[in-house]
Amino acid sequence: MIEIAGLSKTFGSGASAFTALKDINVTIQENEFFTLLGPSGCGKTTLLRSIAGFVDPSTGTLTINGEDILSKPPFARPVNTVFQNYALFPHMTVAENIGFGLEMQDRPKAEIKSVVGDMLELVQMTQMADRMTSQISGGQQQRVALARALAPKPEVLLLDEPLSALDFKLRKEMQIELKRLQAETGITFVFVTHDQEEALTMSDRIAVMNAGRILQIGGPKDIYDHPAERFVADFIGDTNFVDGEVKKVAGETAQVQLQSGKVIKARNVAGGATSGPVTVAVRPEHADLSAPGGLIDGTLKNIIYFGTDTHYHVQTDDGSTFVIRRQNQPDAVEAHEVGEKVGVTFNAGVAQILRD
Ligand SMILES: Nc1ncnc2c1ncn2[C@@H]1O[C@H](COP(=O)(O)OP(=O)(O)OP(=O)(O)O)[C@@H](O)[C@H]1O
Ligand SMILES: [Mg+2]
After folding, report:
1. 334 burial level (CB within 10 Å; 0-12, 13-18, 19+)
2. Do 264 and 347 share a domain, yes or no?
3. Over 70: is that where the pLDDT of 270 sits?
């Protein structure tokens, strides 16, 4: 539905030029919950504003439903935006803010009243319909901004960190609410966040960004289980990085010799190294402790109890640290102790060769 190709954006010129987006290529499907995830300053808002029409890209194309939209002003694009700073009209009531887009479209009064009523209910703000937006809390303002953007039923809704002002509990509630809303309305969501957990739980697909580039696009499980690059593996969840050397590659599988001399089967991504030294990533919950003589051997340095699980820090014989995470069972007795010689094991295929 949204096709972005070869898009880049350079702000300023000469010595002060700064390239915020570099060769962005992405296709977003109809009715998809698509998330842009990355650290502060990586270009998420700039990409969103390019789609909305508030940033003029330096190169590239952008179509919605096959139609070039770069030549169209923001109001003529089939999108609506919930801005990072929500930008409500302070001199209007909650209800007037929500109805604003419909007023602009000259829709009949009765229709506006009914849609605004539905939206107020949706974001649980019916009681506050007649308050000025300067008289409500930050979280309430965020919900009004969301309702205002949804009211005209745009084809695409762009959301820039729309839940950032909410407390933990309300944030969790609104995550579920937003997901439900998206499924019910059939609107395509392009959602921006720097919160990896939020991205994993809400999205159909995620684009992981860093320094103006998209590094990887995939479903939450794909991104988490099969990060292609060191940055992605590091940014999303916790990861062990293990050095090794590629011995043989057969399609998506590679044999990698670890520094311990043991050879493991690792997953090899397209474009990954086919020989020589590599880094493989192993998630802490995909590995386990064994007696010495594991894939990697070392000494148990730390046992940290987290309630839901326990983390074991192993100082490996080659001088790095490997973390293992085990889910706790009720009333289980801790079988390991600090200082103990241990092995680290993991199954074939859970290790992932990183492209770096
Ligand atoms: N108008 C501008 N002129 C010059 N540089 C800009 C402009 N707008 C953004 N930038 C720069 O472009 C980079 C990307 O900014 P952007 O707002 O897209 O980041 P972001 O990923 O949304 O970050 P955050 O998570 O902090 O909101 C930043 O380094 C920013 O300083
Ligand atoms: Mg931003």
Report:
1. exposed
2. yes
3. no
